[in-house]
Please model this.
Amino acid sequence: MSSNSLEDRHVAVLGGSSGIGLATARLLSARGARVTIGGRNPERLRAAAEHVGERAQTRQLDAEELDSLRRFFDESGPLTDLVVTVTRRGGAGPATKMCEADLLGAFAGKTVPHLRAVALAVPTLAEHGSITLVTAGSAQSALPGTAALAAVNGALEAAVAPLAVELAPRRVNAVSPGVIETAWWDEFPEDARREAFATFAERAPVARNGRAHDVALAIAALVENGFITGVVLPCDGGLRLT
Model:
């Protein structure tokens, strides 16, 4: 594939200062795109700009704040593509504890920002541009302790098809990552994290967990391929099959 296959594109990556978002921004920039990275933490944004290179610009953004999202799109200018990787850590737990869980916060931290970003991006998004959301494999699995996560991500996945039809000819897709070894897992104690990684890697047909770059490759494929829309693409090493 040509290293400048995206040279005429301007891609906004929300949540692009770390993890999957940063890997995506780096990959798209390497393929020639101009990238605008939105993130909450100024220090991580500075580091991301250095990491991605001269084709990247950054804008501070709190994706849970509507006015902040509006400013981001107003100031970023015309876009050809939008990638939303915004998430909130945590959310796993037994079903019997869901009454005590911050369910509203879970939706406010991911589902709502994704859908608002779509709505606010449309006026500045190219007619034949694309939108790629990043959900999670919990929406396609049946793992105990993930009902709340499945609800948050399943709501986004359910929105992909109607958005693809309503916003056409713009394309709308999602990538659904499985177990990806990123900082999302940092809230777990180290021993529990290692045990979980080992268990999931053993279960996955590809015999390993994912890396942020694996998901970035899947996102880039959807951004680049102008004949794919309305798709939720699993990127889980086959874990959903086990």
User: Anything to note?
Assistant: Residues 10-241 form a domain with the Rossmann fold fold (CATH 3.40.50.720).
